[in-house]
Amino acid sequence: MKPPRDAQARQAVEPVVVYPDDALQPADLAALAAVRPGARLVASQPVPPREARCFRVAAGQFFRISCPEGAQVGDLNLWRADDLAEHFYSGKTRALHGTHLGRGARMWSNFPFLRPMATIVEDTLDWYGADRFGCRVHDVIGTRCDPYTNQLLTGGQYHHCCHSNLTRALAGETGLPLPEAEAHVHDVLNVFMCTGFSRDTGQYIMKASPVRAGDYLEFFAEIDLIGALSACPGGDCASEHSSDAATCHPLNVDIFAPAVPPADWTPPAPNAYDRTHGR
Known about the structure:
- The chain has 279 residues and is of the alpha+beta class.
- It has six helices and 13 strands.
- A hairpin with a 2-residue loop joins β4 and β5 (83-87).
- The chain is globular, with a radius of gyration of 20 Å.
């Protein structure tokens, strides 16, 4: 279409942040850091390459996702431990904190709960920032690799996409049949994945993750959680995912229990909206 005469003026309008984060109660990172040194390791869950595993974390505990060997990205789901209906809401988390998460950001739950589920307290990749392609780490953009999109794009059957891995892991943890478990799998935090949007087409792009052996992302559990982590079949996601060709490595989840809770911390209550919706 031919641009209107005021096209440049329309494009020049300054943007505003949709949900200013200064309206949010910030995480008290100092209080969390104060109790972390005395926390003891209470559980570990290895995650094999191209597979997923579940883990449980009590409110007030820390959990660390680490890369013990070669570069590897992971897809993380979270649910409330006693009710799978409450789960991580990547879209609202993205709206509140941005496309990529770092220290101090929270993972928020879905409606009608909308409360913090976990808070990021440490990130050994926080030095990466944004590269010349506009890529950053730990995104809440991608939905997770899945067998349906793989079938659509390649015509092939592949069963170790992160969606399928998470489905099998949740079914194994809860005893739910696969179709019921699959209905609870949701959009993820792409741990260690390096992603952005192309400047020319706006497409979702990825590049080799900067993660190396010894790197980790650590969280504080705000409520009782079931987590599921998939070691993506794309490995470091340098060129492809949903593939047996990429070099893949394991991930690990460690759970730490502090001796005392953080000062003035209590598990957050569900959102206080009255749910009348104007009626």
